[in-house]
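Notes from hallway chat w/ T.B., transcribed later so I don't forget. T.B. wanted the structure written out for a chain they're using in a teaching module, and asked if we could keep both sequence and structure tokens in one place. Agreed to drop them here.
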Amino acid sequence: MHCALYDAGRCRSCQWIEQPVSDQLTAKMNDLHKLLAGIAVKEWRAPVSGPEQAFRNKAKMVVSGSVEKPLLGMLHRNGNPEDLTDCPLYPASFQAAFAVLKPFIARAGLTPYNVARKRGELKYLLLTESQLDGGLMLRFVLRSESKLEQLRTALPWLQQRLAQLKVISANIQPVHMAIMEGEQEIPLTEQRALEEQFNGVPLYIRPQSFFQTNPAVAASLYAAARDWVRGLPVKHMWDLFCGVGGFGLHCATADMKLTGIEIAPEAIASARQSAEKLGLTDIHFQALDSTQFATVQQDIPDLVLVNPPRRGIGQALCYYLNGVAPKYIIYSSCNAQSMARDISSLSGYRVERVQLFDMFPHTAHYEVLTLLVRE
């Protein structure tokens, strides 16, 4: 992939961009083999990759510059701004949206936040696109509510020029720190969730819920988990750290009992909406801490699927799983280092299958799906 921003030294986020994708995959597989070197793996599945460019469904843009000439992109460590609206990781539809959003910022009087001076109102623009119909979700991250009415008044102009905008909200982040969003989310449209679909499964993206940024590879990841689960004698399943329910909703069948646990209420609202649309009746999503939920249960499932944040599932949950010994564990990880540590702490299990998913091309990051079977 060619990137003028990289060539000019303006952005080096894609540190592996000069390597062919095949070499990137080889390096990632070598890293995964090294991390799991002390663990016997029965089957290594071929890695899965997707498009090299225009694959991202989300843009997180720092707003800088002036209200008349805003820049959308990032700040370098020295505080200098960099406009990244031409980043080749974004689809062409994003570039068209950015071209409208820049004059809208001036029209709405949303002064970009100046980090050094601690002045201004608009900190970030967060844009998400649905692959289902091209619908967009737009979030304005503001320092306060002082410009909220100005924003509301100007929105019809924006909606007229970007008809694909379906969900708009304002997030209030008053803290002078490198925190992307605050707790308060103010809806600015009647529609509150952006509908997406992977492998025929409806999924809903809400402003404060996590969603994968590489739809093509994410769809392959969910499909792989579905195929693995349906090849096992599973009638009862837990989906821990379930997010919007992508794994559980793919794996669930009409005769399976499934419980999905996620600490974020917004994500659980999305998962319940999907389950209702699919007509699944014996599927239960709850907004709870996954470890706290699991460690007080008596009705142990056949399979536990975990999809934790980068820190992994942790010693407390590993200890609990060792004690209750579900027949199967599927571990989806965005950090193979913490996954390897957790697997080493899960005694009495063999690693049946491992597969790498290149969710983040041109970087060292990747995702892994692992099937563990009780011996």
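Follow-up for T.B.: The CA atoms of residues 60 and 317 lie 33 Å apart. Might be a good example for the class.
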